[in-house]
Amino acid sequence: MTNSLLPRPVLVLLTLSTLSGSALADRTPANLKAFKTVCVNAGYHEQDKENDAIRTKLIQRIYDALDAAKIAVADSPCQPKGLSSTGQLNLYFDFTTTTDGKTFDGTLEGWLTKDGTYDSVTLWQDNIFGSLDVGGGALEAADVLDELVGGFVKDWQGVH
Fold first, then answer.
1. Less crowded by CB within 10 Å, the N or C end of the chain?
2. How far apart are CA 157 and CA 160, in angstroms?
């Protein structure tokens, strides 16, 4: 079968699957409007191993970006307080590579611990995935984080 015979959605998926870095997003800026503060946390796993030193640096990078954008940041721990009634949004960055270290997934989520009868409600999310050089997770995580936080700041400022 040639490419010209493939349905258009299949061509789009094939094109996306060949890119070294791609993005998925469920960025809904309107969901950010009711919040006054953000509480930050992160996770970092490279080749199935956590690295708290890199995780700490990534969290500080988020704090710095939010501070530069004049977005109020609440003290951690934040998950128990992430409620729409408190006006606080939990912002969580996760960077994970595959076991072989050749593929990554970076996600930034704005979420609540509880909203009404719902637990762990995601209100805003953006995601970048792609390939990387083995052992290059820390640098890739920083680049991905900068891009995702930049999108979050843009959306936050657009509704505040």
1. N
2. 5
- Record: fold of 27-159: Rossmann fold (3.40.50)
User: How far apart are the C-alpha atoms of 100 and 83, rounded to whole Å?
Assistant: 38
The encoded tokens of residue 135 equal 């052992």
Cα distance between residue 89 and residue 92, in whole Å: 10
Q: Phi and psi dihedrals of 90, rounded to 5?
A: -80, 135
Tokens 């994970």, located at residue:
96
Q: Is the separation of the CB atoms in 112 and 83 below 8 Å?
A: yes
Sheet with 103-115, strands from edge to edge, namely 21-26, 118-131, 103-115, 88-97, 37-46, 49-50
Query: What is the residue whose two structure tokens read 């953006």?
Result: 126
Distance of CA 99 to the CA centre of its chain: 20
